[in-house]
Amino acid sequence: MSAHSCRHVRADLSAYLDGDLDAGLADKTRAHLAGCAACRSELELLRLTVGALHRLPDLPPPAAILSGVRARLRPEPWHRRLFGAPWHFNFPLGAAATLLVAIGISLLLARYPEMPKSVAPGPILQAPSLPAKKTQAVAAPDAPPAPAARENVARRRSRVPSAPPAPAAEATPPAAAPKDAGREDASVRQQLAAAPSRAVIPAQQAAQEPAKERTVMFDDDSAVRAATGQSAPIRDSVAADEIDGAYRATTPATARQKESRALLEEKADSGGARGSVRVAEEREPNEQVIEVVCQLRPGGDTASDLEQFLRREGAFILEVSALEPPALREAAARHRERLGRLSGTSRGWTMTVRVQAPALARLLEALAQRTGLRILEQPAIPATAESSTGALELRLTVLQ
Amino acid sequence: MRRARTGDQGAFERLVLNHQRRTFNVAYRILGDYDEALDLTQEVFIQAHRSLGQFRGEARFGSWLLAIAVNHCRNRLKLWKRRARSKHESLSAPIGDEGSDLRREPPDPGTTAVEALEGRQLEELVSEEMMHLDDEFRAVLVLRDVQEVAYEEIARMLELPVGTVKSRLHRGRTELRERVRRRLAPRDGGESGRP
Predict the structure, then answer these.
(1) B residues 50-89 lying closer than 8 A (beta carbon) to A
(2) Rounded distance, CA A123 to CA B58, Å?
């Protein structure tokens, strides 16, 4: 075989592979291949290459596609522009509910003129269905003005004393809480106490709250126990449904809320509050990304242990960040084509795993035990996801 | 589709849900960047929403969307070139960064290139090398070999004759094969695999 002939044959191998060569050229190519091992090898390489292209998997589409399109197509409703609240219901139900809330607020203000006006539009600190002791631990009773609610909670948490408070503390605000704030909010608290659980915002509105707005916090053992007065971990003494109904701040993802999250992360970095769990993305129609930030217990599991544990639990590793330990990098390489996003972080390493929705609660609980953290609130998983086999992505960031 | 054209927002959102996976993945494979692909996919749907009235139904809605997506990708790639951006870095960086053995590991000298390829992360290699192909070749490869779109549909999307589509496909595959082969060549052959 001449080199010239080989070069031409190799240029036509793709068409030959697809049967796109005309009959005469195909015969010549076939004859050449029969006598040329090098070109046969090239054909085989091409076949493998094309086969690999066919096998490249689709990435799951990010939920942000729909939410972004929706946001750009739908003009901001007047109440959102006005209050910045997460009113995601449709007209006319939304408008009616907004009107009712506005009337209610007006009446409240008329009846309790001393109530701070910043409370009116909404922080929306949801009434807990937990025992009072736990509620006390998660949020101080002096509900702060809404946008800063989470930030305040995070700040307060970082100040939780190591000594457990007296059991009687249930009815009194923590010492660290500003006294004037507690006085100002007294009437609001009375209203909250009189209202049925979760009655601060309409149930429907709560259901339509974008999942990504909900943030769940972790604390370290001592802080949680100190705050709750419990000697045992919360999960050992509180039923799962109670945890699911835990105190929840349902403020919108405003810039201030993002600041609060950043604060929390800062604290996580500095060893204060050590992590968080939140629904990071809402996917269609029963998929969500649960973001977990945690820290391995010193002297406990290694990153590799954690990976093996997640595998045993049936989680499928989708991605590992750039700064992961070598063992996880290998895992990432094995599943590289399924990677959605290779997210590097200066704080540690991130691993995204896919888990079945029904297993999420169990997995989070086990994870919390391994990382020495306590889940104060489970992320709200839509009923559709819990009742189906829909997969969830768990984006696990382990702080270093 | 009809309801979406009459302004039914819910119907349009269902169209987004039905077509976002393919649109996003085409953008991702052509651009090689997750965030850019996400952004571009949103743009595609926004433009589709604005242009629904122009959709005549000659092609399938999915193909129409893909045509918009490919056009947007081309424009963005041109923009990047103007700005001398190298978008493939974000895809390959985690594995190919300093200290990674995966990229630089030479094949076992006792094996042929094909055998070595079988033993390696074949899809990973192909995916990385695809990002170095000419943009026009890559678009055709993504549509035909990754998404398995018919030649005729690709020709309509790209407004090219079918023969040109096939020609680009074959040339793209051939170049890709060469890149894969070079990556698998032993290091003492003087080829590190990166262009």
Answers:
(1) none
(2) 51
For the stretch A233-250, pLDDT in tens is 222 222 222 222 222 222
Facing A41 at nearest CB: one of B38, B114, B170: B114
Q: Which pTM was predicted?
A: 0.43
| Amino acid letter, B115 | E
How many alpha carbons fall within 13 Å on the CB side of residue A313?
A: 24
- What's the pLDDT tens digit per position in A180-227? 433 434 443 343 333 333 222 333 333 343 333 333 333 333 333 333
DSSP string across B103-168: HHPPPPTTS-HHHHHHHS-HHHHHHHHHTTS-HHHHHHHIIIIIS---HHHHHHHHT--HHHHHHH
Task: Using CA coordinates, name the residue in chain A closest to B38.
Answer: A65
Between CA A298 and CA A318 the distance in angstroms is 26
Q: Which of B98, B103, B114, B151 to mutate to test the interface with A (most CBs of A within 10 A)?
A: B114
Where are the strands (E) in A335-381, listed by range?
348-356, 373-375
Helical ranges in chain A per DSSP H: 3-11, 13-18, 23-35, 37-55, 64-73, 78-83, 93-111, 132-138, 149-158, 179-184, 186-194, 203-207, 221-228, 234-237, 240-244, 255-270, 303-312, 326-334, 360-371, 383-387
In this prediction the ipTM stands at 0.78
- Are the beta carbons of B170 and A15 separated by less than 8 Å? yes
Spell A162-178 as b/e; 16+ CB within 10 A means b. Answer: eebbeeebeeebbeebe
- Cis ω before A145 (30° cut-off from 0): no
Which among B13, B93, B145 is the nearest to A53, CB-wise?
Answer: B145
Q: Whose structure tokens read 């086969």?
A: A51
| DSSP at A323 | T
